[in-house]
């Protein structure tokens, strides 16, 4: 379990699908939030301060080891195909500095599918379909 209260959470990407909801969830857990986007200045300085870094920027392998501090919790939401490989927004060198991370593939993707199935079941039950 990751302690979020009082931690600095930097979210890269302000989409309504990932970035904004992630920022809201982290705020609900009493994290201090910095929401970054394509016009954010000094991105590297901000990400190097993050205790928790959520990356949903849509740029393959963009976040390298020099963007993160030692011990960061790294959540890579990106998914891209480069030649015959699936990669995220984070370079594997960033994972090496993380205390915990979600790899690509195999990290956030399975949870997305599980949430989709859970929401589908809840919608079915809410409609009391016979």
Following the backbone from N to C, one meets helices and strands in this order, namely EHEHEEEEHEH
CATH superfamily name? NAD(P)-binding Rossmann-like Domain
| Rg over alpha carbons | 16 Å
Mean pLDDT figure:
85
Task: Write down the CATH topology.
Answer: Rossmann fold
CATH class: Alpha Beta
What does this structure look like?
This protein has 130 residues and is an alpha/beta fold. The chain has one domain: NAD(P)-binding Rossmann-like Domain (Rossmann fold, 3-Layer(aba) Sandwich). The chain has 4 helices and 7 strands, in the order E-H-E-H-E-E-E-E-H-E-H. It has helices at 19-28, 43-47, 92-95, 108-126; strands spanning 8-12, 32-36, 52-55, 73-76, 80-82, 85-87, 100-102. The strands form 2 sheets. The protein has a 5-stranded parallel sheet with strand order 2-1-3-4-7. A two-stranded antiparallel sheet has the order 5-6. Helix 1 links the parallel strand 1 and strand 2. The chain is globular and about 50 Å long. The termini are far apart.
Q: What topology does this entry show?
A:
Elements: E1 8-12, H1 19-28, E2 32-36, H2 43-47, E3 52-55, E4 73-76, E5 80-82, E6 85-87, H3 92-95, E7 100-102, H4 108-126
Parallel strand pairs: 1-2, 1-3, 3-4, 4-7
Antiparallel strand pairs: 5-6
């Amino acid at each position: 379990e990751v302690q979020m209260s009082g931690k600095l959470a930097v979210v890269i990407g302000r989409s309504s699908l990932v970035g904004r909801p992630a920022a809201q969830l982290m705020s609900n857990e009493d994290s201090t939030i910095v929401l970054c986007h394509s016009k954010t200045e000094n991105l590297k300085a901000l990400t190097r301060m993050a205790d928790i870094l959520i990356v949903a920027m849509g740029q393959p392998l963009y976040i390298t080891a020099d963007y993160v501090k030692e011990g960061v919790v790294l959540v890579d939401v990106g998914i891209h195909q480069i030649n015959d490989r699936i990669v995220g927004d984070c370079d594997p060198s960033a994972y090496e500095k993380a205390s915990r991370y979600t790899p690509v593939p195999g990290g956030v993707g399975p949870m997305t599918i599980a949430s989709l199935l859970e929401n589908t079941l809840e919608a079915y039950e809410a409609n009391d379909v016979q």
